[in-house]
Structure formats: structure tokens, C-alpha cells
Design a protein that fits this description.
This protein has 210 residues and is mainly α. The protein folds into 2 domains: 1-50, no CATH class; 54-206, no CATH class. It is built from 11 helices and no strands. The longest helix has 23 residues, at 132-154. The chain starts with 8 loop residues before the first helix and ends in a 5-residue tail after the last helix. The mean pLDDT is 89.
Length: 210
């Protein structure tokens, strides 16, 4: 996967889909993402860090162990995978991706999805090659799904109301307070306190007042 150094996002993506391993290191002990970052190819780093093989999600569409039913209905795997692999992490973008798919924009569907996301997050943190970046991203999406459920249950305007809340700015300066609080809440709820990424985020956000 080291052609990512050349900056070609499409080739990088094709190699990932063909099964290239992102955690393999070269002769100086660096992964493809680390090498791409070293030479300034940040678009390729983004592609690598946001890649999530579809088969890892399809695992949950089949009953496991003593389960009689799969944790994730097959019909939800495609829409959920699209959200997991998006590189635009703005909360409004994620809510719009939910809203545009009728299969996903239902309380029961979102409940199943966020539970699967929580399992994926746990795997990312407990696997041999820990992936804190992916774990945090998956957790963040899970938090947004849970907030979607709240709006679908409690508000007549449903997800449109959620989007308006995210976009509404404070009167004096237009600052989106609700959006900021949602993002901070998702960071605070990250269940793995020992994660280096979490500690870095907390250190950078804590001194900044809303």
C-alpha cells in the first residue's frame, strides 16, 4: 500500500478494497499512513484512516454463537457502511446521510446500528493492533445515532429538528452551541479513558470555553 506516498487517493482506495493491510510496516517500522503523512500526502492518510472493510460489518449480519438473529439486518449494512467510511464528520452531514435513507431513519434500525457500532469500537480498542482513531470515529457516529433516536421519539419535526438544532447559532455571534456541546459530550462518553487520542482531545478542548 506504500504507493499512497505518491498522493493518488484512488489507487490507495483500490488497494485497500483489494485487501491491502494498513498495519504492515516497512523497513523503518512505519505504516502506510505514517509514510504518507511523513511526505505530506494527507489526503491519502485520510483515505487510509477512514477505510473500513465491508466484510468486517457483514460479520454482524450473520447470527454468531448462540444468537438466533443477526445483530445487524442485511438491509442496513450498506447504508451503515457508507456512513462509517465517510470522510466528512460534520454532525449535520451524518444526520443527512441517516435522513436520506428510509431504512436507516427509524428508531429500531438506529438502535441496532449503534449497538453494532459500540461492538466495533470495543474491537478496535481491544485488538492487538489498537486503532484509536477508528474507535473514536465509530463512537462519535454511535453518539449521533443515539441523539437521532431521541429526536425521532420526542420531536414532531424529527431529524429536521435535529439538523436545525445543530445549525442554530448563538444570537450574539452565531456560534453553534448545541453542535459544540454534542461533540464534547461524545468525547466525554468515550469509554476508554486510557486512550492517548482521548487524552489529547481533552487537553486541547478543556481550556476552551464555549
Amino acid at each position: 500500500i506504500f504507493p499512497s506516498n505518491s498522493g493518488n487517493k484512488e489507487i490507495t482506495w483500490m488497494m485497500l478494497e483489494a485487501g491491502a493491510e494498513t498495519d504492515v510496516v516497512n523497513s523503518v517500522g512505519r505504516t502506510a499512513a505514517q509514510m504518507a503523512a511523513f511526505v505530506g500526502q494527507h489526503d491519502c492518510v485520510t483515505v487510509i484512516n477512514n477505510f473500513f472493510p465491508r466484510e468486517r460489518l457483514d460479520y454482524y449480519t450473520k447470527p454468531q454463537g448462540l444468537d438466533k438473529e443477526p445483530k445487524l439486518p442485511v438491509k442496513l449494512a450498506g447504508p451503515l457502511h457508507k456512513i462509517i467510511t465517510t470522510t466528512n464528520m460534520h454532525p449535520v452531514k451524518i444526520v443527512l446521510l441517516v435522513k436520506e435513507n428510509p431504512l436507516l431513519a427509524e428508531v429500531e434500525a438506529l438502535q441496532k446500528c449503534y449497538r453494532v457500532l459500540d461492538l466495533i469500537c470495543e474491537k478496535c480498542m481491544k485488538q492487538k493492533d489498537m486503532n484509536e482513531v477508528l474507535a473514536m470515529k465509530i463512537h462519535y457516529i454511535s453518539c449521533i445515532f443515539q441523539k437521532c433516536i431521541t429526536f425521532l421519539k420526542e420531536r414532531e419535526d424529527k431529524l429536521d429538528g435535529f439538523i436545525r438544532s445543530l445549525l442554530k447559532g448563538r444570537e450574539k455571534d452565531g456560534f453553534p452551541v448545541y453542535q459544540e456541546k454534542l461533540i464534547r459530550e461524545s468525547i466525554r462518553k468515550f469509554p476508554y479513558c486510557e486512550a492517548t487520542l482521548l487524552q489529547q482531545l481533552v487537553r486541547s478542548i478543556a481550556p476552551v470555553e464555549i
